[in-house]
Amino acid sequence: MTTTSAETVIAPARPRAAAVGATARRRQGFQHGGWFVAPFLVLFALFVVWPLLRGLYLSFTDANISGEGASFIGLDNYREALRDDLMWEALGHSAYFTLLVVPCITVMAFLLAMLAHHIERGKWLWRLCFFAPFLLPSTVAANLWQWLFNPGTGMINHVFGIDTPWLTDKTYAMLAVVITTLWWTVGFSFLLYLAALQGIPGHLYEAAKLDGANAWHRMVRITLPMLRNITGLVVALQILASLQVFDQAVVMQDFGPGPEGSTRTFVQYTLEEGFTSYRVGYASAISIIFFVIIAAVALARMWLLRTREEGGR
User: Fold this and answer.
1) What does the pLDDT look like over 209-219, one tens digit per residue?
2) Three-state DSSP state, 61
3) Do 274 and 280 contact (CB within 8 A), yes or no?
4) pTM for the complete prediction?
């Protein structure tokens, strides 16, 4: 009985000792890992957190570009922004650009990835051709297409036998920016799709062939469902990137807002207010508004993803 009693008392101490040891190891691992993460946290705080907090503070002031003589004005900048027709127009241009780019670039990237994945000869060359434009700086891509769209010396009108004023007519100016963006950035989404296609097990297609499924059925029943997550990622990344469009729109219009302001995006308008009109406080306010919009889009994407995952369980 004494032995049994002693065993009964001592036995529970073993799991407790193991738990204490595991906690100590985790604490030690965190201490060592913290030194590796610290440089990133310092840079993140210095270049992301601090500018965000500084911009939030300036949005409640009437600060100018010199940074001197700023006074606290409360929510006046935000009230003005809500009544600013130019701000809403610029936001509409960014949204219009996003609505055009995101579906087109998603479909194009998928089709190009399917082509590069299934082609037999010269596969490396096709992949290089599809991805290479993405390696170009934005100014290079914009200047190249600015020349191509030039009605006098460009190739677009001459090749297709048309006489379209791409960059000087408000009807076509944003469309020219969209075409440039598709050519320039589709390579990134193409690479994501290509990597996902290579990760689909081949035995699924072999089993489908044995069951008599044709190419269309294999794509609809196997390929697209297996690419559902990567498609959601591509769409989310493209929405966030497209809403922040700036470089190509500005460069193609020689750093102007385009004909009748048709290519003035939200980011460009923010810079104009801050560095042309010298209203840093107001520019900070509308940039905070834009930050809230971007954050809302990202949170909506996370919520939809979590809802879909919970519904699939």
Assistant:
1) 888 888 899 89
2) strand
3) yes
4) 0.84
